[in-house]
Amino acid sequence: MNSAPSESALSDGSAYANAGVDIAKGDEVVRALAPVVRETFTPAVLGDIGGFGGLFKLQGYREPVLVASADGVGTKLKLAVLAESYASAGADIVNHSINDIWVQGADPLFFLDYIGTGKLEQDAIVEMVRGMADACHDAGCALIGGETAEMPGIYAAGDYDVVGFMVGAVERYELVNGSGIRAGDVLVGFPSSGLHTNGYSLVRQVFGLDRNPDSLTVHRGELGMTLGEALLAVHKPYYRALKPVRSMLRGMAHITGGGITGNLPRSLPSAMRAEVRLGSWDVPPLFRLIQETGDLDTDEMYRVFNMGIGFIAAVRPSDVDTVAAAGGGSVIGEIFERRKGENALSFV
Q: Which one of 143, 174, 205 terminates a domain?
């Protein structure tokens, strides 16, 4: 993690520390993070912790296209802080970012993070970065740098903001952009692990979590766990499972904010439309609980949440069985030609 060097004039007891920014403590955090981050380094990483920028040697590609993404954990962080589940928040942002670039067929190369807080708490920050490092390691991706910012004028003590920046690469001839999608192709949906990282502002309102955070610890029979455990399930990555069948994937959609309604059309050519068959997968009990508790309209549920489908791929009919088996997916719909006036997506 990048940080300014220690200065004796800015140690504990300095005017800057009294103003709420403790540089010496920040340096301690960087030292504690160094071994965690180095565990993710691949031979392509040329630098070390503490530089102004991370160094990465791109190799192994003949005609590489770089694919980059930036995103945040969002208000799921508020629940993670209440539950002191910092490692899960770190894994969430990495896995979300991996899915975003995998939509275009890119291998994740390296990741950078930004953590903003009102007051540096070393244990919380180290756990958060440990979650990032573990998720990066699982994907074969290097965590090469980042920033931990203590800003009491922006964040209150105990508040966090976590943002991730992912860079990947794909051979130009392997780029997945949806242009090859044709009528008759089949939509394969892959299960989510829960809400992933979207819809938490509505969930907090539905369950009154800001007023009554203790409800997170209540065991729910229909969920088989506490509400907090269900809501904090780590965002699922799909890259490792689907990479072996990349050549069979004509188009992909990561079902994030906006649900299936907002994300599946983004992967389609303008001349194609998708039909998604409701009832073709079992909607997990968590989503039914949210809908019933909040008395929410079904259309809104599909606009806000993934409803149990975290990722969708469009494939040829002949490739369905292979692709579905690779990622534990199932057929949820089909592609048709789009006539004038028709919507890009319909539920049937």
A: 174
